[in-house]
Design a protein that fits this description.
Layout (H helix, E strand, L loop, with lengths): L1 H7 L17 H9 L4 H10 L3 H21 L8 H17 L12 E3 L5 E3 L13 H8 L3 H37 L1
Antiparallel strand pairs: 1-2
Amino acid sequence: MKEIFTRMNARTANYNGTGGIPSISPEDVAACLAKIKERGPSLLIRAQLMDDVAYRELRALFRQHVAHLAMIKHWKTGPKFAEYFDGLCDSVLHYYLVPDTCGRCHGHGHITRSDSAIIPCPVCAETGHREVSERDKAKTAGIPISLWKDVWEERYTAARDILVAWETEADRVIKRLWWEDV
């Protein structure tokens, strides 16, 4: 689905092989997104397309859904639950929207030294990506690693599953629309 929206993005080269600017406008993208009935999946896709307003709305809606999940699953609370809960939600969103891009080369696989020499990235070994560890997730969430493994790692997965479900729904709708129009 990200490939479809990348192709629809008006700033990319034309995908039919002739070059130039595609004829699909931002309004076309908005119309396609409007076909997604549920708010969560639509906001998720807009946030993935770097829409800051959509990200703020997604963040609030996601927190509501995770809070509902916590209530349903009877998550035990402790003295820092609210702080850890906020950190968990932010960490899940961060690593879902920007999953594993190398922070050193920003996904390029190489870096340019001060003498203009281009060298392979020493962090990701030219892949542009790096594995996100449980320690990274815990650190981003502001949760001690000792509590992470015992309690919050499972909660992270449950919260991430909300975003997976939203993206799956958006993917289903967009692919159906895309292939019907072709």
